[in-house]
Design a protein that fits this description.
single chain; 10 helices; Serine Threonine Protein Phosphatase 5, Tetratricopeptide repeat; 2 domains
């Protein structure tokens, strides 16, 4: 019933406004009243005056930023210096779900220092995030540039292998990870993780069930 009271109240107020403010002539008053009644009839026909209100809230969804992956990169690659500054800005945009802008920031950094392996590695990760986990040709090129510029560093091999493994390229990932695991200190967390991932890959390649690094 509340809906009906509101509808009739608004119609009455509209008619009074036309009389007092609009000063419609007497000859037009019946037509105006008929128009308002027609509107009420349409409301009664199409509307649901007894239906309870149901306010809606808009939920903004953003792609989740992989904080653990970023922390791993900071642990394995350069934290400070020119590359670190670009990577911090890129991570900030990634946290907001702005994956394209996150990659573009690193491209801007590479224009200044095109031979920085950390920026190429960050670009590879950013492009994978922008493609929802897919290793695009651009991401593959970025990883390979990082590897070429820092062939002995752990970060390019670790993250390129991780991206390949998550895309089903298990043998290629193993080829990167096996020598890296052998070169890391015994008992270290990264060596334990790599050895566990390699064991899962071996199990998969042997056809012993699904696993994901």
């Amino acid at each position: 019933m509340t809906g009906w009271f509101i509808a009739f109240g608004l119609a009455g107020l509209a008619f009074l406004a036309m009389l007092l403010i609009g000063r419609i002539p007497r000859s037009a008053r019946e037509i105006s009243a008929a128009a308002l009644l027609l509107g009420l009839a349409g409301y009664a026909w199409q509307g649901n005056p007894g239906l309870a209100g149901a306010p809606r809230s808009i939920k903004v969804t953003e792609e989740a930023f992989d904080e653990k992956l970023a922390e791993q990169r900071r642990g394995l690659a350069e934290r400070y210096g020119p590359a670190g500054q670009w990577l911090v800005m890129s991570d900030g945009l990634g946290r907001q779900g702005k994956t394209k802008e996150s990659a573009n920031i690193l491209l801007a950094g590479l224009r200044q220092t095109p031979d920085d392996p950390n920026l190429w590695l960050g670009l590879g990760n950013a492009l994978v995030a922008h493609a929802d986990g897919v290793v695009s040709p651009g991401a593959d090129f970025a990883y390979r540039r990082a590897l070429a510029l820092d062939a002995k560093g752990p970060a390019p091999r670790y993250f390129y292998g991780l991206a390949l493994a998550r895309n089903g390229q298990l043998q290629a990932a193993r080829d990167l990870w096996a020598p890296l695991a052998a070169a890391t200190p015994p008992g270290s967390a990264i060596r334990a993780e790599l050895e566990a991932n390699i064991a899962r890959i071996d199990s998969l390649l042997a056809g012993n069930g699904p696993a994901r690094p």
